[in-house]
Specification:
Blueprint (H helix, E strand, L loop, with lengths): L1 H85 L5
Protein name: Somatostatin/Cortistatin C-terminal domain-containing protein
Organism: Steinernema carpocapsae (Entomopathogenic nematode)
Keywords: Signal
Length: about 90
């Protein structure tokens, strides 16, 4: 009798565990979907940040080139002014 009762209790415990697992499975699936969505959003944000960093680096490069061009133009004006001062025929 005790063995039958122990088996019945064990069967009820196993059945309870199976019911709990089967009920929690959709919750796990929902959590997995939320995790995937969050991962996708995080990847998109990371890509956006990488694009911003790349754009920032390009902008910095263009500003550096612009400064160099401006400095070159100032030097050219200075050369032209000097040339025109000493030889006004060429201006």
């Amino acid at each position: 009798m005790n063995i039958v009762l122990a088996r019945l209790i064990l069967a009820l415990v196993i059945l309870g565990v199976l019911v709990t697992v089967s009920e929690s499975r959709p919750s796990l699936q929902v959590l997995h979907e939320i995790l995937e969505e969050t991962k996708t959003e995080f990847d998109n944000e990371l890509k956006s940040l990488e694009d911003l960093l790349e754009t920032s680096a390009l902008l910095e490069k263009f500003q550096r080139n612009r400064r160099q061009t401006t400095e070159g133009a100032v030097d050219m004006k200075s050369v032209k002014r000097t040339r025109c001062y000493f030889n006004p025929v060429t201006c």
